[in-house]
Design a protein that fits this description.
93 residues, mainly alpha, 92% helix
């Protein structure tokens, strides 16, 4: 049962990453194209795409950081415990 939850959680994360990357890129692309139409230019779309890509990667970074924060805390606690055991072993010699 525990492994099923882990698989589902991973699937949800992959789906969220995809949506989190696609939405800002296409939104900024659309806004850039509309601004190019209004101002009769052809470079705002490129700026919009670049901003969309930067926003997408930032969102993915924040989301994955939060997703794995609990796992990192558990791992850090285990490492501290192992280090304490090593220190206690050295002090008893």
């Amino acid at each position: 049962m525990k492994s099923d939850k882990k698989v589902l959680k991973s699937f949800v994360l992959i789906t969220q990453i995809g949506i989190t990357m696609i939405v800002p890129i296409f939104l900024c692309l659309f806004v850039g194209m509309k601004l190019d139409e209004w101002f009769k230019t052809n470079f705002i779309t490129i700026i919009g795409i670049i901003l969309g890509i930067l926003a997408a990667f930032r969102n993915v970074y924040v989301m994955t950081k939060q997703f794995y924060l609990k796992d990192k805390e558990k791992e850090d606690a285990q490492l501290r415990y192992i280090q304490e055991l090593k220190n206690n072993k050295k002090s008893h010699k």
